[in-house]
Amino acid sequence: MNRIVHYLRAINAENIKEWKIEWKYKPDFFRQFFEPLIFILPYLLYGFAVLGGRFSEHLETMTGVADMVAYTFIGYLIMGFLNTACWAMGASLRKEQWYGTLDTIFVAPVPRWVYVAGMAAHSTCHQGLIMLIQAVVITTIFAIVFQTAGIFFALIIVALMILAIYGLGIMVAGFTIGLKQWWVISETFSTLITIVTPIAYPLAVLPLFLRKVSLLLPTTYGVMGVRHFLLGELLGIDFITIIIRLVIILIVWLAFGLGIFMFMDRFGRKKGVLSTY
Amino acid sequence: MRIIVEELKKDFRILLAYPAEIGFWIIWPILWVVPLVFQGQALIGGLHSTAFGDLAGTQEYIPYVLVGAIVSTYMFSAVWSMGNSLRDEMFYGTLEHILSAPARPVHILLGKGVYNSILSTAFVIIQMLICVFIFGLDITLTKIFPILFFLLLLLIGLYGIGFMAAAVTLLVKEAHGLLHMFEYILFLFSPIRYPVEVHPITRVVSVFIPLTYALIALRGLLLGIAFNFWKNSLILIGIDIIIIPLGLYIFSLIEKRTKTRGTLAHY
């Protein structure tokens, strides 16, 4: 019991430390709450330019949802967690290296996963807050109406998706130890997953091969499931199937992410590259 | 001149230490277009949009965004690479050495600007070749000189912005996120992904961004969309004349300020 409390305190300490570092750079701290709003607008304006309006008959035929803004917005809102996992978790170790504190942290009397869990806890709090602000602003500006009855199920799906995505974040953090240039790794994963996930389009528009790849990603079920419960998007699979597939993906991704992290950690220490740039 | 050459040599050596970056910058700007292609197909069910044609002068939205993606490589280079160049030196622990060397900091910055220009031009050429051989983009030899002319004008204007971005890094230190947001602002207000005429605010703000005029001209040349050659050239030259001295002045001002306050080595 004492050990669990000890670990929980270490996780919280990591979370608090991240908040403190972020607060130190105030322009950057506040920027993070506005950036997602600016990020999503080009995708909405692109939709307006192609469509000549807000509602699409073709999209409605394919998904049951005609509102391009609501459809696209939910996709990018959910994908915010992917960026957090890839960027924030990937960057965290590289930053510790730059600050000169990585070696110190890695010799602390806690297992490595505690450090990783601390990063994940911070990312969840931070991204959750960003998403909340983004959701309030966009839904108010564009007068988007959601089906509130589906919020509970949508939240379950989001929670499972986040845990699975953190498997990816842990893996990226692990690669950073050995491969150093973290942003190339982060950007590679986030771009490829963004292309294959049906963020602003249904699965049906993807080529068959990409459609099959898409079914292996937690973001696919996250985005489609949330859109189904909040906007009524038509799906070929039911809620139970989504949950089962997400749980399987979660186990595989987390195990794989932790495995890569442990491997790269051992590799880094064995080769003596932990503190090299 | 020797300072610029030495800076070039150093930057290329660092780049070669992380070879994955080279492949990344060639391929990724093209890959970023793919979600927009899928989104367009989901919204209208085809590759031609009448509404898009009314705004952009071409109904084919894929070549439109493809050209935007290629040209945006220069924007990434100016904002991202130039902005982070001094932050990287800070992390490597070499910033103080560089800025206290018997050389004017502006020359070092120019060296970084020349390095990024060469690199991004090489990336753009490879991306264009990919578009010509894989996507069937049509470029005739007679168009190459006007294209190079507008790329040069764009490059000069963007590096004025790049110098300012480098100055911001000296001032706020953790400018990585701010630079990212600046990139998003340029994405929002310039015709990289869509014609800015789609909204009155984007149309007004785009007037002040050099990328707007370069993209109008380059799309005109590459996709055969009607545009005013002289008007766009003169506006770009005008912006360049103002923005380069302004960027260098702001950098010198902030560099002196950080030295006076002793915050150069702060993280």
UniProtKB/TrEMBL annotation, chain A:
What terms describe the molecular function in GO for this protein?
A: ABC-type transporter activity
> Does the record's keyword annotation contain Nucleotidyltransferase?
no
Principal localisation: membrane
One GO CC term, this protein: ATP-binding cassette (ABC) transporter complex
- Keywords recorded for this protein, A-Z: Cell membrane, Membrane, Transmembrane, Transmembrane helix, Transport
* Annotated source species: candidate division TA06 bacterium DG_78
Cross-referenced PANTHER family, in alphabetical order?
ABC-TYPE MULTIDRUG TRANSPORT SYSTEM, PERMEASE COMPONENT, NODULATION PROTEIN J
Protein's membrane topology:
Multi-pass membrane protein
Could you list the residue ranges that cross the membrane? 33-56, 68-89, 129-146, 152-177, 189-210, 239-264
Task: Return the similarity comment.
Answer: Belongs to the ABC-2 integral membrane protein family.
State what protein this is by name: Transport permease protein
Automatic annotation (TrEMBL), chain B:
Q: Does the keyword Membrane apply?
A: yes
Task: Spell out the InterPro entries in the cross-references.
Answer: ABC2_TM (IPR013525), ABC2_TM_bact-type (IPR047817), ABC_2_transport (IPR000412), Nod_factor_ABC_transporter (IPR051784)
- Domain ABC transmembrane type-2 per the UniProt entry, residue ranges: 20-254
GO CC annotations?
ATP-binding cassette (ABC) transporter complex
Keywords (alphabetical) are: Cell membrane, Membrane, Transmembrane, Transmembrane helix, Transport
Major location category of this protein: membrane
Query: Where can this protein be found?
Result: Cell membrane; Membrane
Question: One Pfam family of this protein, by short name?
Answer: ABC2_membrane
Looking at the UniProt entry, the stretches that span the membrane are 22-40, 61-82, 114-135, 147-172, 208-227, 233-254
Molecular function terms, GO-annotated = ABC-type transporter activity
Is-annotated flag, keyword Acetylation? no
The protein's topology relative to the membrane is:
Multi-pass membrane protein
Indicate the family of this protein: Belongs to the ABC-2 integral membrane protein family.
Descriptive protein name: Transport permease protein
State the organism of origin.
candidate division TA06 bacterium DG_78
